Amino acid sequence: SQQGEEDPQALSIQEGENATMNCSYKTSINNLQWYRQNSGRGLVHLILIRSNEREKHSGRLRVTLDTSKKSSSLLITASRAADTASYFCAMDTGRRALTFGSGTRLQVQP
Amino acid sequence: EADIYQTPRYLVIGTGKKITLECSQTMGHDKMYWYQQDPGMELHLIHYSYGVNSTEKGDLSSESTVSRIRTEHFPLTLESARPSHTSQYLCATGGQSGLGQGFLDSGNTIYFGEGSWLTVV
Fold it and tell me: Which terminus of chain A, N or C, has fewer Cβ atoms within 10 Å?
């Protein structure tokens, strides 16, 4: 990937379980964002964490950031079938535009 | 939330045809972007604009061109489509809004349209 790698590439879980996705990046960032993409649609912004923050919560989402390791994780708790989508991390390096990771495809089985 | 409209949503055209993908937004954001995404793959920035009459090429080389004559519109044009251009094209906006509603900034967040799926046969 040009900037970020996500792991795993695909994840299949049962409803009610937690889903964890990881993102590693290569250069210094101002902030890191997570986006969701339903199949065949555009991306929707989920949450932003700044470089001086270590953890952030929004509803069932929990994001962590470790700038020393250049990594972030997205945790979705108590997953639902409607959470099925692809999830992308996006790095704001202060350059011209966000650069996106390779994405994790999440499948939540009802 | 920004309202971003992309047309057409789906397009199948023959090789050699000229096509324009339209992108319009109603938030008055100064920054607009075009990303290209193959199915199941990552997004690649192909063009961006920081304002009217400002356009720059992105990280991924593209044979397409763009224009930004008005704040609201950021159309992408392929003069002669080829099968290698088959992909999804995503338009996005962000930055500051100058719609007279006071100073608004999307705060580094960008907003995407629903995408245009282009198939060249």
Answer: C
C-alpha distance across the termini of chain A, in Å: 32
Tell me, yes or no, if A84 comes closer than 8 A to chain B by beta carbon.
no
pLDDT tens digit sequence for A26-75: 999 999 999 999 998 999 999 999 999 999 999 999 999 999 999 999 99
Q: Which residues of B touch A85 (CB under 8 A)?
A: none
Rounded CA gap, B106 and B115, in Å? 20
**DSSP conformation class of B27:** S
Selected for mutation to probe chain B from A100, A104, A107 (highest B CB count within 10 Å) is A100
Residues of B whose CB is below 8 A from A45: 109-111
